[in-house]
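Lab notebook page, bench 4
Experiment: in silico fold of construct C2
Operator: M.H.
Input chain length: 210 residues
Purpose: comparison with the prior construct
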Amino acid sequence: MRYTGPACRQCRREGTKLFLKGTKCFTEKCPVERRPYAPGQHGQSTARRRKVSEYAKQLREKQKIKRIYGLTERQFRNTFQKVRSLPGVTGHNLLAALESRLDNMIYRMGFAASRRAARQLIRHRHIEVNGKTVDVASFVVEPGQAVRMREASRTNVAVLASMEQSSRGAAATWFAVDKDSFTGRMLERPARTAIPIAAQEQLVVELYSK
């Protein structure tokens, strides 16, 4: 089951900003800064513990990455199972697969302020891939495919606001966006250096390899 509660509660649990609320994470006073400990009645006592096991570190890293991309436990594990036999570094392949999801691509291209908002756009059939409407957030975008907002959806206020905010960010190297036509295209699979996620994906590989 996908988590639908307060986004900031997840950030507090991981002890760092996960940027689950899009641009609001930059404009609002973050609860992680005001209460730098896990939520719940035992949160402060947990923060005082010094020794953390290797398993706990691996589990927390897995939970952090899973929450950043908004996946359920089953979705995350299935994604790992698909990439573990691929050539290359398994951890890098895992992040590349997560970045290739349609909901993440919509977010990265600036059409949505967060991955949660991107999933809503997809479910409401606002998105086309190579001219065909796609309403599955886990759809895997391949290099060369074009992701586009449907013409009838281009006046959406939330979409326009998100695109305005995204225009101030740094340009990506593995996808291109044409804001005039509301179209983005994946140019290549993202390399690890091109994925702006502060994560130790190797710990996840170690966790699932046990």
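Observations: The longest strand covers residues 146-149. Strands lie at 127-129, 132-133, 146-149, 175-178, 183-186.
Next step: discuss at group meeting.
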